[in-house]
Amino acid sequence: MGSSPSVPEKSIHEFTVKDSRGQDVNLGIYKGKVLLVVNVASKCGFTDSNYTQLTDLYKNYKDKGLEILAFPCNQFLKQEPGTSEDAQNFACTMYKAEYPIFHKVRVNGPNAAPVYKFLKASKPGFLGNRIKWNFTKFLVDKDGHVLGRYSTITAPMAIEVPPSLPPSLANMLFIKFTLSFALFFGNRLISRKHWERCDLRERLKNSMYINQAMVA
């Protein structure tokens, strides 16, 4: 686990990745956009809830400067077994995803995609920088810097705060909701056979919101 290795890049915009067909995509095209970067899987117990809310979140914010970058990954119990194009077709057909689904990547280990090495080094998790499970989320600001890291059970819509709420009140409500959720559902979630180990402190520590990023 240990500390996160340093990386030379200072912004996500310095990276080039592959789209689902293997073509290069320079992430510099997203300068000026707020990004939510997610490692996705089609056969995970959290697939439906996360994909559904990612679609809703994108509809709410795509015209305000949000882009969602989805990276299929098969490292967690082989829950993304098909090709990159299979993953794209699944997301677009089943969940009407309009955001890009990129080429399958590894997110952990020596062969992890460079962009994921950057994300993890920028925002390590509570138990080290490894990605713990599918649907880990990174919120990136308009300049390409990582603002927050969210575990699998943080619903995409939970990162959203209504614009009318002042940040202090929004933070208080989010913490209250998170504590209530953990107390009521914690035993069921932790008892999932293949569930990641997560700590409430990680989620509270990394509480950054899309609305705040939009106006930064």
TrEMBL record:
InterPro entries: Glutathione_peroxidase, GPX_AS, GPX_CS, Thioredoxin-like_sf. One of its GO terms (molecular function) is peroxidase activity. Keywords: Oxidoreductase, Peroxidase. PROSITE patterns: GLUTATHIONE_PEROXID_1, GLUTATHIONE_PEROXID_2, GLUTATHIONE_PEROXID_3. Coiled coil: none annotated. One of its GO terms (biological process) is response to oxidative stress. The keyword Protein transport does not apply. One of its GO terms (cellular component) is cytosol. The keyword Cell inner membrane does not apply. It comes from the Eukaryota. Belongs to the glutathione peroxidase family. This is Glutathione peroxidase.
